[in-house]
Specification:
Length: about 300
Amino acid sequence: IVLEETKGNLEYNKIKKVQIKENKANNSLIVSVEDENIAQARIENNELIITGKKLGTTKITLSSSETKNYSSASTEYIVTIIKASNKIVLSSTSGTYTYPNSGTFSITSNPSGGKLSCTTSNKNVAECTISGNTVTVKPGTTKGSATLTITSEATTNYNAGKAVYAVTTEQGKLSYTANGYEGTYNGNSHGITVTSSGATITYSTDGTNYSSTNPTLTNVGEMVVYYKINTPGPGYLEKTGSKKIVITKADGKVTPPTAKTLKYTGNVQELVNAGSSTTGQIQYKVGTKGTYSTKI
């Protein structure tokens, strides 16, 4: 009885096939295992099929009984069961996260059941924690890329296993509102309105020189006001923009003069009570051929 090899290693809980190259008697072979706690064996399709059950070394004997033309024969195979590799499988291998929002992915396979842990290549970019089979990714304050390494500790029958996850982080986007002003002249000053919780807002009329003073416009015209929202802390993108103040002419209001009831006094008297206007001066004249004057 000749085998393709007479000894070999086999990982725990795996199967190995060894070809039977020669069996001159061409009769049924009998298989016996010295320690079936370590390995089990059978013959199928002219192959010795071995299953690893426990770490250790044992002897497998193949024997054939005597026939008319051949004496009984036997051969041995020495198998050593070694620790199996532990392939960690993740639900995904990469992801993008925006500060300060955390996210998760799963460990879908950990054959050994070994204790799991997670480490990061850059804590400023991202950190990670594990609960059960769920990995939580917490983006840091620095935009960039980092590698997370998920490790399963070695066990009695398995080597340590690991898998890597590529994480990319983006800076957070500030929540804010910005509105300009458009209206008619009313004598009051008007400016733009910018709000953002926890942030510092500065203003500029040239886009270069900023201060905390919000510029205003009172008279008819237009003004562009630039704003800058300074982040409340690291991890956020600074936001800049501009809004416009537009004040248009208001409709004028005129109160016409009213007639007076006069009595002769011998003195010069005004013929009417003066009118008023929000847009200019009222002028007066007597008859159709007179000359306009601001005097009554």
